[in-house]
Structure formats: structure tokens, C-alpha cells
Amino acid sequence: MPTIFASAEDPSIPVHAMEEAGCASALAALPRQARNWAEHIGFSARLGDTLPVPGEDGRVAMVLIGLGSAEARARKRFGAVANLSVLPAGTYHIASALPLPLLEEMTLGWLLSSYGYDRYAGKPAPERALKQPEGIDAKRMDAIVAGEFLTRDLINTPANDMGPDELEAAVLALSLEFGADVSAIRGEELLEQNFPLIHAVGRASPRAPRLLDLRWGSQGPALTLVGKGVCFDTGGLNLKPGSSMALMKKDMGGAATVLGLASMIMALDMPIRLRVLIPAVENAVSGPAFRPGDILTARNGLTVEINNTDAEGRLVLADALSLATEEKPDLLVSMATLTGAARVAVGPDLAPFYSTQDDFAEALSTAAAEVLDPVWRMPFWAPYEALIEPGIADLDNAPSGGFAGSITAALFLRRFAATAPSYAHFDIYGWQPAAAPARPKGGVGQGARALLAALPKALGL
């Protein structure tokens, strides 16, 4: 994989990062012209300040970055990030001596900020290349950035160009890059091979539903990732209003995120047996659409009453999770843009997760804080199990009442992962509603970097 860093031999512009409290002494150490310019502009190293400093020829000779204070950075994820939009194209290097965690934050933030989605309009953003800072693990940084950009590209692509066929093509392309094996079960084959819920959700669309299955690695503990691949969600016969349908191209954000994580794992050649399962469907409206009131039987034999066709994600995940548990992987993780209730609870920035194992949850939460990929543990609250048991069938896909929507969805999924030694479910949003440091507006990965950092401890690597 080609490096994302600029060549060490290229001429480059120095970037000086300084905290607000030490700004005066840091400026005093700069050449007089740079110091005078910074004082004239009023640069005070507040968090996020980015000041290009011109040289005698009028070109940018250096860049000053404000790191604010530790307290300010704690309130703003990726606070130590340059505002690349004010910098001209060119090659840069971080000239300041920074503690390694802060240097890693600044480097990753710079690289993630360089993302742009220009497939349909606009021009590619000017390239502001960065040289590899000393102490940075370039291979790991490459893997993380490439995986995150894959996730963003997949989510940002509109549904007319990112249906089940195109999602399958993306999985195949990833497999070819890393030498993985891929199989797909499509259309009526889903019924023949006992994936009835995936078939039911996707059968109304002319774009055939399918289950995508990627395998990589032959030794080590087994990790299975399951990602919701609903390429567009109309809500089915319980049709969404237009305002709720506008962002439904991102309803395959779970699939996009597990593919980004899989890319990171394979690029780093982690010693595990990796499996990725993606039920890829379009929840459309036509004569064959599944109906409210239908009772469907899942792969594992549980019956499900359909009380809302817009609660389709948990249905396709149920069949995929049932398949995953048949091999009893050491760790089973599902990721899905599953409920609006999760967003009401924690907003778009945090990735809520559920875990059947306290040790895993602790390792994940610790890793998430270290890599600035925030997660928040939610409870598999057993007293709410009754809410997903309608009486007429084993399970209800959309309990009435509106209480604890994310928890009841997670409890539903746990019924299909019950035999997994360790199961975790992420109810992600997958979208950045407004531009923020290192995260342009649009599709975004959540939880993948935290999981990557937690895997060594979680799997005993």
C-alpha cells in the first residue's frame, strides 16, 4: 500500500504548534519577520488558530498552529488540527517537538482533514501533503486513513450508484487488494440457503438482495464483523416522510464501517481469522414488499412479527448474526445505523455500543479515549426483554410505546447472537452533520479506530 506521507526528500514548509500559555516564548524563538507578522495579526495560539506566515518572496514560509490549552483540547475532539483550508497546496512538516500522543493526534487530524468527496462536482482539493513525523508508525497511520476514507466514500455515494451490486463490487475490490475470499448468495438463493429475513426485506426491489461473505486469515483468534447494508431505506410500506428519507443513502453505514475496519486489519496483517458478513438490500415499495402484521421465521427458527417495515435493519442483521454464531467466533461485532433513538440519546458524535462482556467493554472504552474515537456503553437491560415479545410470535421487530428504542433493538439482535462467546453491537449514526476538525460534513466512520486499538487485548494477541 503506498504511503500517505510525502517523500522525506521533498522541500517542505515547517509547521510550528504552540500552546496558548507558551505562545509569547514560542513566538520569541521565531525569526523576527515571522514574529512581527504573528504579533501584527494578533496570533495568540488559541485552539484551532492556523496562521500562514509569508516569507520575503510572498510565499508561505511557515505555518503557526494554536493548540490552546489541555482543557480546551479536552472539549474538542481533534482540537490539535490545522485548518487546511487556509493553506496553499504544498508539502509541510511538523517542526515542533510535541509529546507523542499530541503528535499522533495532530498527524492523524491533518490526514483525515484532507478527505474530499468530488465524484460528481467540484475540483479535487489542493494537496497539502505532510511528511512523516519522527516517531509516527507510518504503516498503521496508512491503514487507518485508507480504511476511514473507504468508509466515507461508500457512505457518501448516492444510492443510485451504491446499491447491492455496487456494494458487492466494493467488497470484491477489497478482497482483491488483500487476497481475501468472497462469496455471495443472491435473490432466491437466499431462501434456498435459509436466509428468509434478508430475502423478505429486499424482495420488493429490482436490485436483488444478497448476503456477502468475506474471509481472510488462516490462523489466530476468530473475529466476525457484521454490517448492516441497507443501501437505501424507504421505510417499506410504512413509508418514511421525505424529511426522514433524505439521508437514507447512509443506511449502509454499518457495512461501510466494517469494511473500513476490515481494510485496516488486513493492511496491518493482524494475526486473526477475519470474517465480514454484509446483508445488502434495498428496502423498497412494490407488490412483493413485506407487510405490517406478517410473521416471518428467521434462520435460527425464531418467529418475528412485523409491526413496522421501517425496522428492517434488525431483520437482515438477524439472519447474518445467526450464520455468524454457527462458527462461534471468539468475538462477534455488529455495526448498524439502526435507530433514531440512539441519536436522541447521545447525539451524532458518540457511537453507542452494547457488549455481553465487561472486559471487552472496558478495553474498548479505554482504547476509544486514547485514539479519539468516542464510544459510550449502553445496557442490555434484561427487564426490557418483555417489550420485544409480542405473544403472537417469538419477537416483535418494532415494539410500540417508543421507550428505549436503541436498547430494545439491541436486545432483539442479541437473541440471534446468543451462542457467541463475546458479542458487541454498535448503533452508529455514520454521518457528520456539520464540518468539524478532521471530519468534513458527510459520511464518517464511528467506532472502527476504537475497535482496532482494542482488538489486541480483546483477542489476546
Automatic annotation (TrEMBL):
Gene Ontology biological-process entries: proteolysis
InterPro entries under this entry? Leucine_aapep/pepB, Macro_dom-like, Peptidase_M17_C, Peptidase_M17_N_1
Recorded GO cellular component terms are: cytoplasm
Query: What Enzyme Commission number(s) apply to this enzyme?
Result: 3.4.11.1
Swiss-Prot/TrEMBL keywords: Aminopeptidase, Hydrolase, Manganese, Protease
Give the superkingdom in one word. Bacteria
- The segment(s) forming the Cytosol aminopeptidase domain are 308-315
MF-aspect GO terms = manganese ion binding; metalloaminopeptidase activity
Q: State the CDD domains in the record.
A: Peptidase_M17 (cd00433)
Any Pfam family hit: Peptidase_M17
Keyword Cell membrane recorded: no
Which PROSITE patterns does the record cross-reference, listed alphabetically? CYTOSOL_AP
Give the similarity note: Belongs to the peptidase M17 family.
Protein name per the record: Putative cytosol aminopeptidase
Q: What is the organism of origin for this protein?
A: Pseudoruegeria aquimaris
